[in-house]
Amino acid sequence: MIDAEVLARATEEVRRATGDKVIAEMFRRSMAENLPAVAERLPDGTTFVLTGDIPAMWLRDSAAQLRPYLLLCADDPALQDVLIGVLHRQLEYVVLDPYANAFNREANGAGHVTDETEMSPWVWERKYEIDSLCFPLELAYRLWRITGRADVIDERFRAAALAIMELWTVEQDHEERSTYRFQRHDDVPTDTLVRDGRGRLTRPTGMSWSAFRPSDDATELGFNVPGNMFASVVLGYLQEIATEVLHDEPLAARAKELKADIDDGIAQYGIVEHPEHGRVYAYEVDGFGGSLLMDDANMPSLLSIPMTGYASADDPTYVATRGLLLSSTNPYYYSGAHASGIGSPHTPPDQVWPIALAVQGLTSTSAEERQQLLELLRDTTGGTGQMHESFHVDDPTVFTREWFSWANAMFCELALVHAGIR
């Protein structure tokens, strides 16, 4: 799905930058195999993307899996067609149910049909995550800017944008305005919401409430700060598209107003004072003064703030937050004989995620750190040559998910950025 000459040139750039033939070959193989393994062009011109080893399409994962291909698609019209097809399928799904995070290829009723929520035959899973709605807006903006093609933004985009803004506005006051409920009775606490499916009590902050994190684990405090940061950024993108492409000033004005609300909420509630690290961003807050200082490997995360575009890598609050996240103050930072990095409550203790290691490199201002992290990822595949969901810091042969498409994509993006391809 990627032009052979485009890939060959990129692979040579990676080899030159890293001085490592193994890293270059891992990059080449992943780029050549990752997208064809998960993407299917449908008769209507859209593209269905498996999340990897699950037969469903996650809004978040399907966009994140495309990130390295976006960096190389400017000179590859056929690849552009595939990527635009992914966007258009995402937009159609959003209009079907903006609360859903994962969808079926067709209305076949597959997935978590016993969950207590408003399921549809199209929906594989209906765990509402604010970031799931950010990724299609970001993908649309990047494709529009990279390709300049008129077919990127169409009426599907307008309909999806309206649905997203309506939901985010409702969820600014989850207690009084939202009808969303979710319960799953599988004895895994992070798979369900407390209070009969409403989640823990929150008070309005200006931010928009989220039921689940990018890990698909339930939020503890309701307002996920990195998710709201991402929402703020993509609302800026939406405002730009509404003005320059759709010529819809009311849509642009609405995006601007919602962005301002979220930004004010982050500034007022999302920054806390830590005795050792100073002013840092919280991972979650509840509006009552409660805050959670941690990070999760899945992005958007606090570590990924410069990637999502909310703040620069040298922003003082981000620098302080980064110091906290990459230390024992973060309860999900693990260190062992083979690796140190951020894991997740979604996987066992002492397991680091390649996605988090890639994000650490992609947000670093040091070429030396990026090189070290690429070499670490090279050396911790457990002999498989593939990125996993997570691996044990003392034994990389102990891992979860032998093949994880999103993690492979993040490794490739790190390799490209290290090679100067941004």
UniProtKB/TrEMBL annotation:
Top-rank taxon: Bacteria
Gene3D superfamilies on file: 1.50.10.10
GO biological process: carbohydrate metabolic process
Name of the featured protein: Glycoside hydrolase family 125 protein
